[in-house]
Amino acid sequence: MKQKQEDGIRLIFEAEDGFCAEKITVYKGPLEKGEAFEAAEVKGSLSEAGSAKKALSESFGMKAALSEISPAKESFTQGTGAEEFSAEAKAAEVFLTEAAAGSVYSYKLDSEGCYVYTGVVAFTAEDAAKGVKIIPYRMEKRRESGFEAVFVSRWTEEVENGCFNPEHLKGFDKRVPDTPAFSKDKAAHQFTSAEEALAFLKKMCASYSGVYLYELKGQGGCPAVIFTKEPLDDAETLDEALQRLAAGGRLKALYQAQLHGNEPAAGEGALAAVQKLAEIYDGGLYSRSSARKKNCGKTAGAEKSSCDMTECGGILTEAMDIVIIPFANENGSREFSRWETVCGGENCAGEIAASGSDNGENCVKEASAERNRASEIGVSGSDGEKLDLNRDALLLRSEVTRAIHRIFCVLMPEIFIDAHEFSGRKRQVHEENGHYILDSLDDIQITCVDHLNRDRRIFELENQIMLDTIDSLSEKGFRSFFFPGSFSQNTSCGYARLMYALTFLVESNGIRRGKIHYGRRVLSQREAVLSILFQAAAKADTIREQVDAARKDFVKRGGVFDEEDIFVLEQKTDQSRGVERPRKSFDFAGNPIDADRRVFICNRGEAVRGRIRPAAYILPKDCPGAEKAAEILSANGAVYEELEAGKSVCVERYLYNGEKIVQSCAENRTFEAGAYVFSLQQMAANVISASLEPDLGDVTERNGSFLQAGILHRDGDVCPVYRLVFQENPAGEKRCRRTPGSKRPARPAK
To answer: What is the pTM of this model?
Structure first.
């Protein structure tokens, strides 16, 4: 008997090609959360499900029945033809008694060996009038050969077809790049492999001049691509090439991508950027003469706020050297995992726990949590612990992080770009007055933040480039906005900020999206990064001069105790200062809401907690973990001296008073076994402070400093790190400062 329209709406899942999902689950709301009803759970065909009505959830207001639409047995071949599937039913039906115009539901489709599809359904007024909504779908087999998604999420049909229409894009070459992921022999949601990426980069280097390829670690390992007008044919090693660039006098940029293996458009966007840059540096796309004729950038005697690729190819080649690491996490990408496996076997968690005296239990809990999260996103492979490479900047547990930081320390780039993807599904939905709203369907988000341990002049330069890039992408038809920035000091961007580089985080909307709108995501990555690079090139002289001056000032004021010099341990966003930018909201039918909406971009810092910098930090050689700490800091660009055994020095200690870390009065201390002395009169001074301060606050997910991570260990209430604090009298005699550690509030660095 046909249901009355006012009783609800029939939701029909109709399989294409006859291959039905083995399990279909419907949820109330857009995020597959809360109460759910399984419309069918079968092995082979929907008709074998039995009486689905026995599983009714009356409180949820759902009724269900199997609909034998096209009941004749159908068979078809999927993928390579290795397997054949059949189904006796083509559709499953769920009757939603509470559904009406404007209501939103979500669903999950699952079959063994196939991609797990989730999606959202919005019932429009037209659907309500008809009393039915049909969801066509197809289940596709996974190759299971690596570099492949498991979970794939879709918005509503109206959002996918309307808001992601390629006709919205304009003013640039919007053809899908011919990078490896777009090969026709790929499975539906299979991406570029490490081997394919390396082969593609070798082809670029063989086809164009001005492009050089090096590898960070072994054959098939992490590749590094260099773009420069500096001849590097005789530079046999990456270090030699980087030293040439460092001495070349041009602006230097370091661009890394896909540090998280399940964010493939970041890496593919980097390959697409390599392709464009190869044409530019070769001279085959934009000639230097044409750029000069167009009076671009500094040739006009004034710097433009933004710079278009069609005009400024020559300026880029003349002004900038670029190092790109497009495929940073091979292990994670192969497993399609956020993490890199750093150790294997059952004892891995125990090893991590044993490394930290105070935090071992928490490390085990974190390890377990990471395993659970890995399971949620379909990570396969090793039982080893998963390391987030973007939380490894201070600890250097990964060889990849070490290799990238080696590049940074030799090159000392003025520009740093880190490319990722974000999860728009979880981030951008909220409920308002019983209606679900998409805050925005951003294609791309970019951020820079005003970190208080860095010269403010650098932020002003990068902030303008970020805002101009957001505007430039919007003009091209992308929905672009600000990514909520972090002040964390243990991320890749955090490390670059501590080293006084203009730092940009680029995020496309792609986690759990498989290859949905993949071309658009890749193009948004490419255009965002190229926009940043071209704008920086147009301001090359100013950026290079100001960064160089700020770095020299920073080093100059280090090594001498100054009560005005504060290292900020923790900061927060200053919500009172920001810049307005337009940002549309949408309903789940794809209709814009409040088209004139403007949102503040707040990315300036406000100090929460800080401490006066010492002249130097001292690590006794006989304290456990000291040698390891010295090695990590050295790999992170720091230099140290060694204090001879039996030497006495005037120092402060860190003490734990049961609630927080405090400083002792200064006293003479004899280091019987000698010590490592890290003067802060060096460029890595910020990294040294972040690593050795026992109570660092600005960290993400994992403990950041050496004491927090368990590399160094507290002996009772005493921390093993000492502060060298002295003042010099006019005669040059060093006198011990006998006052307790300052408790004044933190102030921004100069």
So the answer is: 0.85
